[in-house]
Design a protein that fits this description.
Elements: E1 4-18, H1 23-26, E2 29-43, E3 47-51, H2 58-65, E4 73-78, E5 81-82, H3 88-94, E6 98-101, H4 115-124, H5 131-144, H6 161-175, E7 179-183, H7 191-208, E8 211-215, H8 219-225, E9 228-233, E10 236-242, H9 243-248, H10 253-268, H11 276-279, H12 298-302, H13 307-310, E11 319-322, E12 325-327
Parallel strand pairs: 3-8, 3-9, 6-7, 7-8
Antiparallel strand pairs: 1-2, 1-4, 4-5, 9-10, 10-12, 11-12
Helix pairs in contact: 4-5, 4-6, 5-6, 6-7
This protein binds adenosine-5'-triphosphate, iron/sulfur cluster and magnesium ion.
The site of iron/sulfur cluster has 12 residues, from helix 12.
């Protein structure tokens, strides 16, 4: 049985943000519990999909577990080593195995460097190799992401979006990634290219035994690539389980609405899955106690607004429904 590569325990990342036109004078601050007590794990060679509306904390989770942003509290174990309290130099070395593919196609692609130099930099950041070895590894990387060697002499601006994404993937492989946080890896690409990138990531996972935290708004893609799915709402994971079970037998009212809207979308093609737009801007200033989904929850309303849902003392915790399916709701759907 594959062992856990990453274990996250009660992770919190809170921000404070100045607000208002005269914020520097009034020192008025807004508290944002972007990640507010999240626990999950990933096994080797597994993909966990992370979904939820814009602003719910997905990228912050990714950045915090890689140590790119310091956690407010909680613990992150990578290969059983606690990276939240690791000395900077040790973390720097370990980070070669934990990399992020950023949503921005140009991230990590220095516009002044040719692709050959970009890949060389990645390959040699943590290791010394002879020139011949670097050349061999560079060509191997290009081969792995299905690009021709004539790309080596080009600059990033000469590449298409799909080619930039492939070089971005080659870069993290060059550094030595075993665990990759892929943050919306297809969202900046044309629809025709998205499937190619998804297939590439799946092929690489099989060939190299990679482990992915796959962040996406696109539920169809998440369902396709993920073994397990975690659903986030305002800084919390509200449901987690095997991808097919989350997609077809959601227990949390929010998950149910997300996937129902996907079915609607498939039926009507033109309608978007609900991101921020569908229900208006959601906000961390809405209920900070009890269940954060209550103001929008059809079950809560249908049940006559039971106090247990909004009582500060009874915030719904993730409960095990069996078979690795967890839900945080007082009235899970049957
Ligand atoms: N450096 C920061 N300082 C202050 N607030 C931040 C910072 N980074 C993120 N936030 C806030 O934390 C919350 C979560 O942001 P995050 O980017 O993690 O969301 P997300 O789920 O990735 O959204 P999207 O789907 O739009 O990428 C948001 O309210 C955001 O404004
Ligand atoms: S705990 Fe209550 S308000 Fe929250 S999702 Fe469940 S039914 Fe809805
Ligand atoms: Mg994000």
């Amino acid at each position: 049985m594959p062992k856990s590569l990453l274990e996250v325990f009660d992770l919190k990342k809170h921000f404070t943000q100045r607000r208002g036109l005269f914020s520097s004078l009034t020192a008025e601050e807004r508290f944002i519990p972007a990640v507010d007590g999240v626990s999950f794990y990933l096994k080797e060679n597994e993909t966990v999909g992370l979904v939820g509306e814009s602003g719910c904390g997905k990228t912050t989770i990714g950045r915090t577990i890689l140590g790119l942003t310091r956690a407010t509290s909680g613990k992150v174990l990578f290969d059983r080593k606690d990276i939240t309290c690791m000395p900077a130099e040790e973390l720097r070395l370990l980070r070669s195995q934990m990399q992020m593919i950023f949503q921005d196609l140009d991230a990590g692609l220095n516009p002044k460097m040719r692709i050959r130099e970009i890949l060389k930099e990645a390959i040699t950041v943590h290791h010394r190799f002879s020139d011949a070895e670097v050349e061999r590894k560079t060509r191997e990387l290009l081969d792995q992401v299905n690009l021709k060697s004539n790309k080596l002499s080009q600059f990033p601006h000469e590449l298409s979006g799909g080619e930039k994404r492939r070089i971005g993937i080659a870069r993290v492989l060059g550094v030595g990634a075993r665990f990759i946080v892929a943050d919306e890896p297809t969202s900046a690409l044309d629809v025709s290219i998205q499937a190619q990138v998804v297939n590439l990531l799946r092929d690489l996972q099989q060939q190299l035994g990679l482990t992915f935290l796959f962040i996406s708004h696109d539920l169809q893609v998440v369902e396709l690539v993920s073994h397990k799915v975690a659903v986030m709402y305002l800084g919390k994971i509200v449901e987690m389980g095997l991808a097919e079970r989350i997609a077809s037998k959601a227990s949390h009212p929010y998950t149910h609405i997300l996937w129902s809207s996907l079915v609607e979308k498939q039926n009507r093609e033109a309608v978007q899955a609900p991101t921020t737009g569908a229900w208006g801007v959601h906000d961390f200033e809405r209920p900070l106690h009890g269940c954060r989904f209550a103001p929008r929850c059809p079950v809560y309303h249908a049940q006559g607004r039971p106090a247990i849902c909004t009582d500060p003392a009874s915030e719904p915790e993730l409960r095990d429904l069996g078979d690795g399916h967890y839900v945080a709701c007082h009235f899970p759907l049957g």
